[in-house]
Amino acid sequence: GAVVSQHPSRVICKSGTSVKIECRSLDFQATTMFWYRQFPKQSLMLMATSNEGSKATYEQGVEKDKFLINHASLTLSTLTVTSAHPEDSSFYICSASGTSGGSYQETQYFGPGTRLLVL
Amino acid sequence: DAKTTQPPSMDCAEGRAANLPCNHSTISGNEYVYWYRQIHSQGPQYIIHGLKNNETNEMASLIITEDRKSSTLILPHATLRDTAVYYCIVRVLNTGNQFYFGTGTSLTVIP
Fold first, then answer.
1. Between chains, do B46 and A2 touch, taking CB under 8 Å as contact?
2. Number of Cβ within a 10 Å radius of residue A86
3. What angle (nearest 5°) sits at the alpha carbon of residue B73, between those of residues B72 and B74?
4. What is the secondary structure of A79-113 as a DSSP string?
5. Which residue in A has a C-alpha nearest to residue B104's C-alpha?
6. With b meaning 16 or more CB within 10 Å and e meaning fewer, what string describes A31-48?
7. What residues in chain A have their Cβ under 8 A from chain B's Cβ atoms?
8. Cβ atoms within 10 A of the Cβ of B65, count?
9. How many CB atoms lie within 10 A of CB A9?
10. Which of A46, A100, A111 comes nearest B95 by C-beta?
11. In a structure prediction context, what are the per-residue pLDDT tens digits for chain B, which is 111 residues long?
12. Distances in Å between the alpha carbon of A71 and those of A77, A106, A116, B1, B42?
């Protein structure tokens, strides 16, 4: 149990285009999903927290208009990198926590990550 | 959330126990200790978590000191596939509460 998927696993795009990354909880309902970014040889940096049906909460320094997050259902959250530039190239990882009272509420389960390269 | 301190790197011989320490001297009474690991180019994998009692599962054991200011993750018989970066995180138990990752310990299992 507790499987989280991401799509695509890697994407290459031209500078100025937008890229959408999907995060799905496959076998549990995720009240809260989180988005992280990781640069080479660095730790994970939390970008934002999203609750189903609510606006995402962004960490300090993360541009909400650049990184659009939608959490429309209990199993799907999307991150859209708008007008991507080469400095946005990174490894993007999502995670999910289960609904309160359920067996998956106590921790976060991570997706496999999406590697974005902006040319 | 409390800050954690981990050694940047460790080596362990294959088949031996790997003991990974973590200091969290400012931990609060309602904060749990979590351990995750990240194998290169993959998402983090949940290992174990606990509050104050020692915990064991199929992957590892978690030993938390009585004052809860430090803990040790034990991989009883390390294999080459355990080579990864191991992260110790403390946080309040709640679905909506965030994880903030530190720099972790890079464990290399040596044949």
1. yes
2. 9
3. 110
4. EEE-S--GGG-EEEEEEEEE-TTSTTSSS-EE---
5. A43
6. bbbbbbbbeeeeebbbbb
7. 2, 4, 6, 31-32, 34, 36, 43-46, 49, 51, 91, 93, 95, 97-100, 105-113, 115
8. 12
9. 12
10. A100
11. 668 999 999 999 999 999 999 999 999 888 899 999 999 889 999 999 999 989 999 999 999 999 999 999 999 999 999 999 999 999 877 656 788 899 999 999 999
12. 4, 20, 21, 25, 23
Q: A45, A108, A115: which to substitute to probe chain B, counting the most B Cβ within 10 Å?
A: A108
Per-residue pLDDT at B9:
97
The residues, any chain, with a CB within 8 Å of residue A105's CB and separated by 6 or more, are A31, A97, A98, A99, B95
